[in-house]
Amino acid sequence: MPTPDRGTLRDRALGALTTLWVSLLRYALKFGVVGIVGYVVDVGVFNLLRVTVMGDNPIGAKAVAVVFGTLVTWLGSRYWTFRENRRDNYLLELLEFIVVSAGGLLVVLLCLWVSHYVLGFRTLLADNISTNVIGFVLATAFRFFLFRFWVYGHHRRDGLHARTHKAEAAALVLFEDESAASRDADSD
């Protein structure tokens, strides 16, 4: 029995790792650009509202700004970063995007809480490091991987559309007859 050529296996493994790395790096760079644009929108809308119609309501201004920033990042992710994996059911996709974004916020808040209340680092500098450095890095990694492999994962490409096809296939199995399954589906 011939043994596989080690050089060939090594070359194939390195080639696969290189392809994986390039693919992830491409997504990560696009993700970063979209995130920066969303951040600029968030900060810009917040400051615009603070100096105009919501001067005395910073919390309301920030809430509105986060909504706009999240919509911009969703649109950028949907139509550029993960465009080949966007789904027909855009409302489900948006809902999942919002859930992951809220999860990222919780990661940041958890870092702040641990630093401020558990470890006792109560200075403004410590709060900024725990939130805007450590929390930011962890939340960005959290969002990137959940967006890449859950919201825009290859297995989710068609979203609700794929579920419809599965239901049709199940109906074919039940009825064992395509015409009976389609007649039943048309009668609903």
Automatic annotation (TrEMBL):
This is GtrA family protein. It is found in: Membrane. It comes from the Bacteria. Pfam families: GtrA_DPMS_TM (PF04138). The keyword Ligase does not apply. The chain crosses the membrane at residues 20-41, 61-82, 94-117, 129-151. It is a multi-pass membrane protein.
